[in-house]
């Protein structure tokens, strides 16, 4: 190699070395300096109609919905009324069964009075109850109405049918009747202020559902509320313990929901003897 070639090569090597020094060492990406990819939402919210709050329609996929199914929680719609209040839609109707049941006992106790009422009210007994007078004809044909609810913290709402001869306009705190005893006409005076149907709903900004299970499942429901829903209110759990006791005595058919047009109804099925169901 000639002297000129050696000098040219040396110059090239010096230039490359200078470029490397000027650029500095290459950084290795780390969790701290690597840009984060955008995260997908865990669920997609559906858009409520104008003027209707988002909770009235809820998410397209409710987080924990499978867990709620296992806890026997059936979602309900909360809608906004023209006056700005919030409400749920309720139907009360007879459900034919092959044995003398709730409605048959009521007809014995209340055949000479019109003091039978439906009530949906918080189980704490401190809030105003929604009540509606019921006739046997209305129950057999079915009757529908809106019930105002609060969208504050989750509350246990009792779904009651009771006697209200005393004019209390509430079913909370009334004694659960033994349906067989009532149907036999025993303790009629007590029964006229007694409880003949009971189930419950959990309503609030965090959760809007009816419980569609049985009394022995309430313990699992409480555990679900604590671990999945993050509810910590001891009053809610105390009210659910009371709910379980009432359900064990009365054993009413659990509520369910049905869709009619744009309305999702809470169905209150009142068991009544229908001999056609026996065949």
Question: How are the secondary structure elements laid out?
Answer:
Layout: H1 3-23, H2 65-70, E1 73-75, E2 79-80, E3 86-97, H3 102-109, E4 116-122, E5 130-133, H4 136-141, E6 143-149, E7 155-163, H5 179-183, H6 188-191, E8 195-203, E9 208-211, H7 218-227, H8 234-250, E10 256-260, E11 263-273
Parallel strand pairs: 3-11
Antiparallel strand pairs: 1-9, 2-3, 3-6, 4-5, 4-7, 7-8, 8-9, 10-11
Domain count, please report it: 1
Q: Please tell me what the overall shape is.
A: elongated
Mean pLDDT: 82
| Low-confidence runs of at least 5 consecutive residues | 24-63
Strand order of the largest sheet: 1-9-8-7-4-5
Give the fraction of residues assigned to helices: 25-40%
Whole-angstrom Rg: 32 Å
> Structural class given helices, strands, pairing?
alpha+beta
**What is the CA–CA distance across the termini?**
112 Å
- Relative strand content: 25-35%
Largest sheet composition: 6 strands, antiparallel
Quaternary structure state of the chains depicted:
single chain
Q: If helices are DSSP runs of H or I spanning 4 or more residues, what is the number of helices?
A: 8
Say how many strands there are.
11
Order of helices and strands: HHEEEHEEHEEHHEEHHEE
Describe the protein.
There is one protein chain. This protein is α+β, with helices and mostly antiparallel strands. It has one domain (73-278). It is built from 8 helices and 11 strands. It has helices at 3-23, 65-70, 102-109, 136-141, 179-183, 188-191, 218-227, 234-250; strands at 73-75, 79-80, 86-97, 116-122, 130-133, 143-149, 155-163, 195-203, 208-211, 256-260, 263-273. The strands form 2 sheets. The chain has a 6-stranded antiparallel beta sheet, sandwiched between helices. The chain starts with a helix and ends in a 6-residue tail after the last strand.
């Amino acid at each position: 190699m000639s002297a000129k070639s050696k000098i040219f090569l040396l110059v090239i090597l010096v230039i490359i070395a200078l470029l490397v020094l000027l650029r500095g060492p290459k950084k290795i990406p780390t969790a701290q300096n690597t840009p984060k990819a955008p995260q997908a939402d865990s669920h997609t919210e559906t858009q409520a109609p104008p003027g209707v709050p988002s909770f009235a329609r809820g998410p397209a996929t409710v987080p924990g919905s499978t867990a709620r199914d296992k806890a026997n929680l059936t979602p309900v719609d909360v809608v906004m009324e023209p006056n700005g209040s919030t409400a749920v839609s309720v139907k009360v109707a007879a459900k034919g069964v092959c044995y003398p049941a709730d409605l048959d006992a009521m007809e014995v106790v209340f055949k000479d009075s019109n003091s039978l009422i439906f009530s949906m009210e918080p189980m704490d007994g401190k809030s105003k109850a929604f009540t509606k007078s019921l006739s046997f004809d209305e129950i057999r044909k079915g009757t529908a109405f809106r019930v105002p609810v609060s969208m504050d913290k989750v509350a246990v709402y009792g779904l009651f049918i009771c006697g209200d001869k005393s004019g209390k306009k509430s079913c909370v705190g009334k004694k659960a009747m033994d349906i067989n005893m009532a149907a036999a006409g025993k303790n009629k005076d007590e029964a006229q202020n007694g409880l003949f149907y009971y189930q419950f709903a959990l309503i609030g900004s965090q959760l809007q559902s009816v419980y569609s299970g049985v009394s022995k499942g309430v313990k699992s429901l409480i555990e679900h509320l604590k671990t999945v829903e993050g509810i910590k209110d001891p009053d809610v759990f105390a009210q659910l313990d009371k709910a379980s006791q009432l359900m064990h005595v009365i054993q009413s058919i659990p509520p369910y929901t049905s869709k009619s047009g744009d309305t999702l109804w809470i169905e209150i099925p009142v068991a009544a003897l229908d001999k056609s169901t026996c065949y």
